[in-house]
Write a structure and sequence with these properties.
Shape: globular
Strand order of the largest sheet: 2-1-3-4
Radius of gyration: 21 Å
Length: 168
């Protein structure tokens, strides 16, 4: 009888833990979609946060007077892209600068992250238009979509990267 009780208890714990993990995953997915994660085009703009809609970036640049920093990235497979995000884009010095001085546009070419056909087409068209040959490629653009400067990964962290951007 004790052996049977242990099996039932283990089964209940297993079912509960599987349900809890699924609920956490669904909540994370729902909140990412609600926050405008890389699943579709559109959404509202928050200064200092990455958007994925090129037309929205042009509008925000025209409204704010700030140039667009375009990040052509392979976010889930490109090692240099991951390093640039970790060492620069996720750091306070860059985020503070971006909030007041840039419109951030992320054009992603992932291998495992799902994207809409519309988003994939937009990103592919822009990569072709600007002759993107590798990742990460970082462009600064004006409000009309004209390329002002081109760069990529640079060592030195967020502060040095911000200084580099200011010199472009």
């Amino acid at each position: 009888m004790i052996k049977y009780s242990k099996i039932v208890l283990l089964a209940v714990i297993l079912i509960f833990s599987m349900t809890a993990c699924k609920a956490e995953k669904n909540a994370a997915t729902d909140s990412a979609e609600a926050a405008g994660a890389d699943t579709t085009l559109a959404g509202s703009y928050i200064a200092g946060e990455w958007i994925t809609d090129y037309q929205q970036a042009l509008r925000m640049s025209a409204e704010t007077g700030n140039p667009i920093l375009v990040n052509f990235t392979g976010s889930d497979w490109c090692i240099w892209c991951k390093m640039l995000s970790k060492e620069v884009f996720n750091e306070k010095a860059f985020i503070d600068y971006a909030k007041s001085s840039l419109v951030l546009l992320k054009l992603d070419f992932p291998k495992t992250v799902q994207q809409t056909a519309e988003l994939k087409k937009q990103n592919e068209d822009l990569a072709a238009k600007f002759g993107i040959k590798g990742f990460p490629t970082i462009l600064l653009m004006d409000k009309d979509g004209n390329e002002l400067a081109r760069t990529g990964y640079r060592e030195g962290g967020a502060g040095q990267y911000v200084n580099h951007l200011k010199m472009l």
